[in-house]
Design a protein that fits this description.
Elements (H helix, E strand, L loop, with lengths): L30 E5 L2 E7 L1 H4 L3 E8 L8 E2 L4 E8 L1 E7 L5 E7 L3 E4 L5 E5 L4 E8 L8 H5 L1 E3 L13 H10 L3 E2 L8 H7 L1
Antiparallel strand pairs: 1-2, 1-11, 2-3, 3-10, 4-12, 5-8, 5-10, 6-7, 6-9
Length: 192
């Protein structure tokens, strides 16, 4: 059985609200949130790691590209454990890359680099880790999306109000880039 804690973010959580306390999260547990068509599950965040890193998963169906964004102070890791995810990244000098990541593949996004991803196969899962001097952004998902106790994908997409992208993103080191254009082959193909 997993312990439950009250946190500043949730009345019930499997994650202790303070650092320095060992804990375990059983399969199917964690702090979950629905955002767009995806399920995000938080296992460790700023409160537990003294704002040094977070650890989360993203599960979702095949879908559209998520909005381009950057993290001015945070480095992000994408490790695909199931399915396939196409990662789009732009270097600070403007060169763009895209890579199809499948089970066992890894992608690294430096801070300040615009990036986005698109889940290419149903039942895909990304393990994410983010770290940097700006802290961690794991609570972004439930503040932009919707906290849930449901271990499954949302029945209907959870689409935030347009104003939330700016206000919530700013609090969690996420800068959306609404006018960003991907010039990589699959992005061009998708627009045609």
């Amino acid at each position: 059985m997993t312990n439950e804690f009250a946190t500043p973010y949730r009345t019930r959580s499997q994650i202790p609200p303070e650092p320095g306390k060992p804990y375990f999260v059983e399969k199917g547990q964690g702090d979950r949130a629905h955002l767009f068509g995806d399920l995000f599950t938080i296992y460790a965040g700023g409160e537990q790691t003294e704002n040094t890193f977070n650890f989360f998963t993203c599960e979702g169906p095949k879908g559209d590209i998520i909005p381009a964004h950057s993290h001015p102070d945070t480095y992000e890791v994408f490790y695909v454990t199931d399915g396939a995810v196409r990662l789009f990244v732009e270097e600070t000098g403007g060169e763009q890359h895209e890579k199809l990541l499948t089970s066992g593949d890894f992608g690294f996004v430096p801070k300040n680099c615009p990036h986005a991803y698109r889940i290419e196969r149903h039942h895909s899962r990304i393990v994410g880790v983010a770290a940097g001097p700006g802290g961690t952004f794991e609570r972004f998902f439930e503040n932009l999306g919707a906290p849930t106790d449901d271990p499954g994908l949302p029945v209907a997409p959870v689409v935030p109000e347009p104003h939330a992208f700016g206000s919530v993103g700013q609090r969690y080191d996420v800068r959306f880039l609404p006018d960003h254009q991907w010039r990589t082959p699959s992005a061009i193909e998708e627009r045609s």
